[in-house]
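Weekly structure sync - notes
Attendees: PM, LS, DV (DV joined late)
Agenda: review two folding runs queued last week.

Item 1: First target. Sequence and structure tokens pasted below for the record.
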Amino acid sequence: MEFRVLGPISAMDDGIEYLPTAPKQRHLLALLLLHANLPVSTEICSQELWENDPPPSALPTLQTYILQIRRSLARSPSVRSLKSARQKLVTGSRSYRIVTEPEALDLTRFNRLLQEGRVAQRNGDDRAVSRTFRAALSLWRGEALADVTPGPHLRERVNSLAETRLGMMEQCFEAELRLGLHHHLLSELGALSARHPLNENLTAQYMLALYRSSRQVEALEAFHRLRRILDEELGIEPCLRVRLLHEAILTGDPRLDTDLVEGLTPGRERTVAVPVSRPSG
């Protein structure tokens, strides 16, 4: 059975979904999957499902939800029985734990590829960085748990995953810009910088890709758009690195056409923190 949380929640076996139908049961399964192979206390489960207003029957209701999840899993060919489902979804001491194989959860595969990509970064292997991070990003099918309305614990984890995904994209783009793939990145960077208008790093990457694609005017327009938004929203100027990149584009600095652009291209000098929004509906 394969579980997926990097998009709508899924519990699939042989091409067929075996999710419980009730929203609260899906919600509980999502919480357990984001802590796969780790015990999640009944207190955390209750807080996630009902926040500060649990019903008097919270514990027996949780037990009922767990039973319904097990029944859904038991219908799948790889689980087959309620007895096997109890080994897949384990009751502990005031806790529950879902057991998944290393490659059976997309989040586990994503984290493995993230670590492999970081090793490639330390080794200076941009091709491996691009290949590994692209494989990790391909696991996403939209926002994490897009069809689950999160409570306090899931909300924190989902927001953290969104930040990790965006950071991976930026690092992937950096490697691919060094590989000379600026033409291929224009559409992706344009869309992402528009979706995250306060992200200076994405805009700077887009500016560099535009400049290297002989679109200097559009690169300058991207800078002025960023400066206007930062001023209107936060009352600040773009960070020094982005301003230096802007000046280099204005003067046609030859370093912009090479890998030797240290100090002119975006780094992590400043990160503007903004809430990660979930799609409505």
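Item 2: Second target, run right after the first with the same settings.
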Amino acid sequence: MSLGRVTLIGAGPGAADLMTVRGRDALATADVVLYDRLAPTDELRSWAPSAELFDVGKRPGHHRVRQESIHDMLISAAREGRHAVRLKGGDPFVFGRGCEEVAACREAGVPVTVVPGVTSAVAAPAAAGIPVTARGINRAFTVISAHDPLSEEEFAALVGLGGTIVILMGVGTLGHTVEGLRRHGLPEQTPVGIVESAYCEEQRVSLTQLDRVHAMAARTGVTSPAVMVIGEVVRLAAEHPATGEATSSGSAAVAQAVAGAASSAMNLGAAPAARPPARPGVRAP
């Protein structure tokens, strides 16, 4: 029997049509598909018509299938000469444990390839019309997981570097994260955006500022999956977030964001910039 293979596919941020063509092509030849909770699955049977389908998705506080068991399932299928696909939300190599699955396959001598996906770290802000970088405003963005509480060293580094902060898996530690950033000097009126269930029917966007985000999240019941964006680029959020428009009010919004970025860069303890204006169709404090 010839040896099969394993393909890791990044399914993108949630919408079926944001999966790559290469990913869909790989699914079409799959014999086994192990899929995650955040991957689009409504049409999975038609995408992989000959495959056995296994839900191995992890939920907060509950892992129905251990990571080591996922490795074993992929390797066993490949050793039977089958094409095993691991379908993961976002990109397999962005907080997706894809590197562990690749390492397990390589150690077992099983051919493995990776099909990258659109990461929610960039796509979720874009769903609200928020760019993670903008000329004259910032030249860097940092993506960090807050699944586990961030350390004081991490807070200091985030504030010291500047730019946009994109936080994934941070709903459960939101209060800790916000207080840590404030404690290390991030101005309290720094704009904040939270995008829940990006590109799904349940998508919701909330805009606020750093010192009000915890209260807003508690009041509106922010839930996972959610991406939090912190920085002056949030001022560029779309007028109607569901459309993914580029900016809220054209050059005026850009100018305000540039001014806010300049103020923060000169002195993190300086007088805060104006609070982000409320926008139609957006939950605000």
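Discussion on item 2: The mean pLDDT is 87.
Action: LS to circulate a short write-up before next sync.
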